[in-house]
Amino acid sequence: FKAAVLIQQWYRRHVARLEMRRRCTWRIFQSIEYACEQDQIQLHNFFSYLMDQFTPSSSKERDFISRMFISGESYKEAELEKYCDYESIEVPDSYTGPRLSFPLLPDHATALLEAFQQKQQLHARYVLNLLHETRKHLKQLPNISHVSTCYSEEVTVCGDLHGQLDDLFLIFYKNGLPSPSKSYVFNGDFVDRGKQSLEILVILFTFLLIYPKEVHLNRGNHEDHMVNLRYGFTKEVMQKYKVHGKKILKMFQNVFCWLPLATLIDQKVLIIHGGISDTTDLGMLEKIQRDKFVSVLRLKKRRESSRKPEIQAINGERESGTDAAGNETAPRLSLQPQSAQAPRTANRLEFSRWLRQTVQEQIDTCRRLVDISESEPEELTYSSMVSLKDVDESCWTRQEEWKQILDVLWSDPMPQEGCRENKVRGGGCYFGPDVTEKFLEKHSLQFLIRSHECKQEGYEFCHNRKVLTIFSASNYYEIGSNRGAYVKLGPDLIPHFVQYQANKTAHMLTMTQRQGFPVALISRVEESAFRALREKLFAHTSALISAFKAYDGDNTGRITLSNWATAVESVLRLGLPWRMLRPQLVRSTEDGMLQYKSWLDDLAMEQRSQEHIQSSLLEVIYRNRSNLETIFRIIDRDHSGLISFEEFQQTWKLFSSHMNIELTDDGINDLVRSIDFNKDGNIDFNEFLEAFRLVKQCP
């Protein structure tokens, strides 16, 4: 009996340790993922801020900048169809892949599944034709799709797939293909991160057209062309379709903005990608013109071209429709007070007080959007307050609509009460159980189904089982990191879950590893997580040195392990339990002191490439490569993989206006020619990165 108790205690301790390791590993992966999303949103907000402050010198310059940073909104209906004309593309006789003809039949879907399993590629003509037909269908759908279990035995709800085609194949294998008796709801985030996003979209759009009443697609936060620039879908399309990739991307951008925002099952279960906020209203959500929001990351605003006309408008002076040269200027919104009780501008003090009260919220919003720190307050002048927001009624309506969509696509639940800004992701909000309860009661709903968050078991309940998270991309962070899952709902609306892992992990392990499978699997995932964390630490070497020196008053090169943990969190801000993770990151020390310079040198040795780039340069490249690649793709407006001289020149004007750097056109031309190392008239990413490296190398 004593032996049995000892074995039981040992086993429980062993399982508890494994669970603790698994949770720590999970925290690392998730913290790094959300930090990357923060970087994406802050980078986009920075470009948005530059756009709002930039005054083009000509209509050509204005149009160019607008097309570059607001891609997808510049094409009208007829222009888009003409640009993406699939009928003009010929399919060669040598093409052996699947062929589509419309209207689509179930055999077409089967042929596509078989072709993609064999790594075949659908011809660009058929892709564009499919997107054209999908767009026509989606335009007829409401913002909130309605599904009834009366017409099918059950409804299957799938979460994020993120370009992992094997997961979709496994779902269809286990659950069956869509059919008149088997309805599916795919809850967004079909693309990015994985390598087969395009194939997933082709399959889902095909089934959508074959079974329009049984297949329903919701928009996710990754169905956004600005997000695609960073997370892989843009690059994937351009690599697979080098000739017609730009047309295909343009059509995808337009199709994404027509995807419905939510699905309602039996008027009792609401399916949305992200979540809700305390202001989410289904009535308003149903009325929004959803195609206006090509990218949810940027709210398109009509801005004043300069501050002088804005002040003239405030003072009641008439705005001219032409500039000094007599050319027609872009329309501008007046900031003239609309209220009858608004004070007259003659009394500047009274007017200033009134203006502060009416726009203070908008000032705070602008600070958050452009990441202006509250710790460095700037006195608000008469003109600076005027230029921050347009208080036109239509602008307010559009902003509220934008917030409704942003919250639905980006929000996450939290265990605490209330609703607050989601600073971890950088977009949407955190909503508590009280917000969920009020929302369900207001709309007579039983519970919510959402996705947007990777869960270790593929699904998770929260808020007293009123919110269900479903995530269908297995092995999301690393092989073995998580299961995928889907949920089936019958007429009783009781959820039934199916879990799976698409990768054949067991076959990839040795016989010895299989005997201790959970331990080997956790070790494999844990190793990947700590490798990513070390890269993150190395990328912030300079900041870490400064933080460590703050605790090293005598300049001994040594700090306590407790101070090490505090300093690391102050720099990375990942919210990780550093004291618990320390044994995996820092070698044991006898006296509890760490020689931090030696520790950082060890990190550098791990990350140093075979090219022997000096550590300081490698650190900067590690820290900025993702942002640099995103910036490159933003500048590369036509997604050709090359930045033309014109694209670089116009972008440099945007930067120089923000940095108050005066540079002539000849100076810009000299700069761009110096970056074009191979003198082919374009700048590729390697040249772009090399120029960045050389600039950082200069003292």
**What's the overall average pLDDT, rounded?**
77
Q: Provide the domain count.
A: 4
Summing up helix and strand content along with how strands pair, one would put the structural category as: alpha/beta
Figure out the total of helices: 27
Q: Name the overall outline.
A: globular
Arrangement of strands in the largest sheet: 1-5-6-10-12-11
- Given as residue ranges, the uncertain stretches (5+ residues, pLDDT < 50) are 70-74, 300-348, 358-391, 509-517, 609-622, 694-699
Radius of gyration: 28 Å
Give me a quick take on this structure.
By secondary structure, this protein is of the alpha/beta class. Residues 307-321 have a biased composition (Basic and acidic residues).
